[in-house]
Write a structure and sequence with these properties.
It is built from 27 helices and 25 strands. By secondary structure, it is of the alpha/beta class. It binds adenosine-5'-diphosphate and magnesium ion.
Amino acid sequence: MIKTIKSVDFKGKSVIMRVDFNVPMKDAVIQDDTRITAAIPTIKYILANGARTLTLMSHLGDPAKDAESARAKAEKDGKTFNLGKYIAGKHRMAPIASHLQKKLGKTAPVVFAGESGCYNKKAFIDSQKPGTVIMLENTRFHKEETAKDAKDRDKLAKALAAYGDIFVNDAFGTAHRDHASTASIAKFAPVSVAGFLMEKEIKYLEPVVTNPVKPLVAVIGGAKVSSKIAVLESLLKNSSALVIGGGMAYTFLKAQGKKIGKSLVENDQIDTAKKILAAAAQASVEIVLPVDHIGAEKFDPAAKPVAIASPNIPDRLMGMDVGPKTRALYKKVLAKAKTIVWNGPVGVFEFDSFSKGTEELAKLVAAATSKGILTVVGGGDSVAAVNKFKLSSKMSHVSTGGGASLELLEGKKLPGIEVTRGRDRFIAGNWKMHMTRCEAANLAKALVKQLKSGKHKYMAAPSFTALETAGEIFKGSNILLGAQNCAAEEQGAHTGEVSVLQLKDLGVKVIILGHSERRHVYKEDDTLINKKVKLALKHGFEVILCVGETLDEREKKKVEAVCKRQTEKGLAGVTAEELSRVTLAYEPVWAIGTGKTATPEDAEAVHKFIRSVIEKLYGNPAAKQIVIQYGGSVKADNAAKLMSMEDIDGALVGGASLKSETFTPIAKFD
Ligand code: ADP
Ligand code: MG
């Protein structure tokens, strides 16, 4: 789950916020302020909640790159090129600051931090009156902003992070870029959260890929197959119908053996088109390609539109738009949808004679919205089309990000979003050596029912004998099947041991390793535990690695030394990629089964320390992401308090996990 501005207290805090103010500019005049308007709710919320200062940063074009092409163009046209004037007209944030001031009016004063760039502005920011909005200069004047090498980006990111106690990212339009001001900054910011704009985009776009309300009809158009392969493949998984239109449709029609005349085609993508068609047939996804066209002799706004009543296009013509039969077909297909996602125009909508197909499609999607169908439009040109037909307010969601929305629909993880993702809450039950199969089945059934509406990550680890029984019951539920231990070897002469291969065969997803009883009663040492950890990770399992001190060690003030040693040795040789499948559980051994618990504050201090150990081993992002469960006699009455601590992300529950009446309240602590 992403963390949003709703989850932090802004009172008296300085805030650094990435916005997407990359608006079209001409001679220092804003041509379209949609993006500025879109950030206003977040800006107002932060100010209304008492932030001391709000520093905004954005890119505005790419000064170096854009100036170079402008210079080349001027040269070609035989005109003189004045770099200073060009930059002032296109890439400076001062006019944006003035415009924002007009928009905010009396809400807050807006000051521009100067043309000298983004470094060394702390004193300037701190000297502002409380409640001031500060606009930094275009981040892309610094080459570190977009640098390939993370170390270079970090230099700028660190400077920017110093301007805030809280980093807010509301720049959805650049969320797919791994830049200093969008992602690297989160390494240095104490807290990173998403603004309202970002939250709304994710709320609408993400479920289309992960969990759409079905049936889902996807309309994919636009110029090129090559730029839409990933989105086609991603949406194919959940769609009942895939409408393919626009320039890219002709590559598909050619792949089907149709005549396409002079239409746009990517001959090197014909095989890809065939593969996608085959995959759709395999998955019983209906493919809707144009069955008639509006053609033209040349690609020109003034070209005469020619109706082509068949799917085949005569040699002298190119397909520019879909014809009336196809438009009627769209109506039929869209009528079956509960969710419609649309990316890419189905014709050359920029030319009025060839905009009818896209306009009719926009109208159909708008009409569907009014009937309660969830409709999501993404992609720069598709959004431009919907705006042209004045229908944006009639859609459930029109994305503000072109590239970013496309990448989200492709199912990719976006760097600017990932940095605002909070850690999972992970509540796990360790049933230890309790229960017969029948008793375990009863508990498993009760948990499936009661945790169905739970919003966290859950696991239950029955004893080996009940794994198969409980696993059958957990299938399709939100409870992962866990094992309490595994052997350090894959197989062989190991009497009494259970191997990872056998656990995998039973559908086990998570293995608890290094539990205090394994360490202290069965004398497992760090080396043996590490061997098991590596083996389990190698076989694709998630691991809960338990660490924690005994009473004796606590009294001798060795808490940190013990936790550090067990964490370091337990994870020796574990790669950063594998670490994403590791959860740590801190178990003060003296608190297990004794009814004693550490105070939430004591536990928090150790959790924070363990996180710092991870930071030293794997760096900051990994440390922020890793889930650390508390495992010392968690009960219904202390769960909420424990879980409210900053570094306590979940619980590994022993005794209280043996009954649904005691486990469910912990699992649903909030
Ligand atoms: P989006 O920005 O919405 O993702 P794309 O950038 O993929 O969309 O494609 C948009 C472009 O595709 C538009 O400029 C449009 O003119 C073009 N296009 C649509 N249909 C055709 C066609 N039949 N022939 C050539 N170009 C087309
Ligand atoms: Mg485009």
